[in-house]
């Protein structure tokens, strides 16, 4: 009985993204605000109409409501000067019906993602705008997802909308060279979204899962479309599957991040690993590998190990070497040093650490100190280890990571050498 | 058993800026309440109302369009339930989902005429 009355999770949110995209395609980006309000109206109507239980096919109901709302809007606009504009575009009722076919809905949503990632929009605004229009997050929800103030998000959304109007950005997926470039940016934004969910602290599990889920849903949409699908998207999707499979074991009940070494591997979600693997096979049919390919390969190596001690650190190091060639980053160097410590190559790790420009690590510089501390700890230099742990603890922002470092520090105090 | 009408006034989904996700959550609460009443066998009926309001009043049948009326005065819908007495009906009304959005439930006993 209870099951019958339950709606699919996130139905409204996803439906919001779909409807806003279709209506934008019909009416144009300049009407975005009216469109968002109109979509909001259909949900209010649904709440009233469904009080005693949802209709048999809630999705179809909502789509129909949106369609009718479109026609309403269209009638209202008819009295405006925009009428002519719309007629020129040939928005007949036939064309309108076609817009609501599944593949056209998906196409409209892809247009929205590509619009959100337009180079004329401020990169900071892109992610907020995408969350609002594509993912159906409210201003408040975006603020709590990105750990920013409501007011900041409001500004970003307004600025994005204004830029779209002023710069006459068109609602489409670009062609030719521009397609590749824009796709790269879309992937960056999707990965940022994912990392907000996966890595950022102070978020509860629900928010984490929502952000990771959205990122995966958007990339899956790109994969399902022949124009936007490419090996990089496939690799990114695989990478996100691999990471997501570990999400439940990465965070404990107190919302603290658990070190990979201590994670309960039985909590890893196998179906996601399988899905990632399948997609990875497709991704590697390409001759050229992207950073996502290598990151996925690294994530996969971790998943392959049944216990932490069985991790194939040698392979992981090799993947990092490749990654560092195509996408050099001080964080890669830091991770390689961590791997070398695992391999017992302490001096190699130290040499690696010495090449890092710690200024470039920004807020995450505490990771560097944590790693140097570990080096000293492993090589028996207890005092140096404690000094570096102190430095790391001083610089860390995230509370659960701080707890972790404090634990490590006390371990260093107790024994000169952990191994 | 007597019958009572629960009249829902106000509850503002619009200016509170509820997200689609929150609205879906809201909907779940309505389902749950409805289901609870149905299982208890006390749900007799009800409707949700559109927001367009027109008042006809006075000997001249003066028509006023109340589109801009205060949301908190608007009747959004009603349920008819069976209950032992006013207190029991009040107990049922406690589960109304929209108090936090400024909603009010007016409880009125339905008048029964002797035949």
Which segments of chain A are poorly predicted (pLDDT under 50) over 5 or more consecutive residues? none
Q: Over all CA atoms, what is the radius of gyration of chain B? A: 16 Å
Number of helices of chain A: 21
- Strand residue percentage of chain B: 25-35%
Question: What strand order characterises the main sheet of chain B?
Answer: 2-5-1-6
Describe this structure in words.
The complex is a heterodimer of chains A (419) and B (115). Chain A is 69% helix and 0% strand. Chain A has 419 residues and is mainly alpha-helical. Among the domains of chain A are: 230-328; 338-419. Chain A is elongated. Chain B has one domain (2-109): Alpha-Beta Plaits (2-Layer Sandwich), CATH 3.30.70.1060. Chain B is built from two helices and six strands, in the order βαββββαβ. In chain B, the strands form two sheets. Chain B has a four-stranded antiparallel beta sheet. In chain B, β3 (54-57) and β4 (62-65) form a beta hairpin. The radius of gyration of chain B is 16 Å and the shape is flat. At the A-B interface, α1, α2 and α8 of A face α1 of B.
Any descriptors?
heterodimer; A: mainly alpha; 21 helices; 69% helix; B: 115 residues; alpha+beta; Alpha-Beta Plaits; 4-stranded antiparallel β-sheet; two-stranded antiparallel sheet; flat
Tell me the layout of helices and strands.
The complex is a heterodimer of chains A (419) and B (115).
Chain A: H1 11-27, H2 32-49, H3 58-78, H4 82-88, H5 93-99, H6 102-116, H7 123-133, H8 139-146, H9 150-166, H10 176-198, H11 205-223, H12 231-245, H13 247-250, H14 270-283, H15 291-304, H16 313-326, H17 330-342, H18 346-354, H19 365-378, H20 382-395, H21 399-414
Chain B: E1 2-9, H1 20-39, E2 43-48, E3 54-57, E4 62-65, E5 75-83, H2 86-93, E6 104-109
Antiparallel strand pairs in B: 1-5, 1-6, 2-5, 3-4
């Amino acid at each position: 009985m209870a099951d019958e009355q339950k709606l699919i999770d996130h139905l409204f949110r996803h439906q919001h993204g779909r409807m806003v995209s279709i209506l934008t395609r019909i009416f144009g980006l300049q009407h975005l605000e009216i469109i968002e309000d109109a979509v909001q109206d259909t949900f209010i109507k649904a709440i009233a109409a469904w009080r005693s239980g949802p209709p048999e096919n809630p999705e179809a109901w909502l789509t129909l409501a949106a369609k009718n709302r479109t026609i309403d809007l269209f009638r209202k606009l008819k009295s405006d000067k925009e009428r002519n504009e719309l007629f020129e575009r040939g928005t007949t009722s036939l064309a309108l019906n076609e817009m609501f076919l599944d593949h056209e809905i998906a196409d409209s949503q892809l247009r929205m993602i590509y619009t959100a990632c337009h180079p004329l929009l401020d990169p900071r605004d892109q992610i907020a705008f995408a969350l609002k229009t594509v993912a159906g997050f409210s201003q408040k929800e975006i603020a709590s997802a990105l750990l920013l103030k409501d007011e900041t998000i409001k500004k970003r959304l307004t600025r994005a909308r204004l830029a779209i109007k002023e710069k006459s950005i068109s609602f489409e997926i670009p062609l030719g060279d521009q397609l590749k470039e824009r796709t790269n940016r879309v992937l960056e934004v999707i990965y940022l979204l994912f990392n907000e969910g996966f890595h950022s602290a102070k978020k509860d599990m629900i928010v984490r899962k929502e952000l990771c889920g959205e990122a995966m849903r958007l990339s899956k949409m790109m994969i399902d479309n022949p124009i936007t699908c490419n090996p990089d998207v496939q690799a990114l999707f695989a990478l996100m599957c691999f990471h997501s499979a570990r999400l439940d074991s990465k965070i404990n009940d107190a919302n603290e991040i658990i070190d990979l070494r201590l994670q309960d591997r039985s909590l890893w979600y196998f179906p996601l690993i399988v899905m990632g693997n399948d997609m990875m096979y497709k991704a590697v049919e390409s001759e050229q590998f992207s950073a996502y390919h290598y990151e996925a390969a690294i994530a996969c190596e971790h998943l392959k190990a049944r216990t932490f001690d069985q991790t194939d650190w040698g392979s992981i190091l090799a993947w990092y070497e490749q990654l560092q060639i195509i996408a050099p980053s001080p964080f890669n160097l830091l991770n390689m040093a961590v791997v070398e410590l695992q391999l017992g190559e302490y001096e190699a790790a130290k040499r690696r650490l010495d090449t890092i420009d710690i200024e470039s690590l920004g807020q995450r510089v505490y990771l560097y100190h944590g790693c140097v501390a570990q080096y000293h700890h492993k090589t028996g230099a207890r005092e140096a280890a404690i000094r570096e742990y102190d430095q790391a603890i001083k610089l860390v922002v995230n509370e659960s990571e701080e707890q972790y470092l404090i634990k490590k520090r006390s371990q260093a105090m107790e024994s000169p050498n952990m191994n | 058993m007597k019958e009572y009408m629960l009249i829902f006034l106000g509850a503002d989904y619009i200016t509170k800026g509820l997200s689609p996700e929150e609205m879906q959550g809201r909907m779940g609460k309505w389902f749950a309440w409805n289901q609870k009443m149905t299982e208890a066998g006390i749900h007799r009926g009800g409707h949700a109302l559109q927001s367009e309001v027109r008042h006809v009043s006075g000997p001249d049948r003066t028509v006023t369009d109340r589109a801009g009326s205060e949301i908190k005065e608007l009747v959004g819908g009603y349920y008819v339930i069976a209950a032992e007495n006013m207190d029991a009906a009040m107990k049922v009304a406690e589960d109304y989902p929209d108090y936090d959005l400024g909603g009010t439930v007016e409880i009125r006993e339905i008048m029964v005429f002797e035949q």
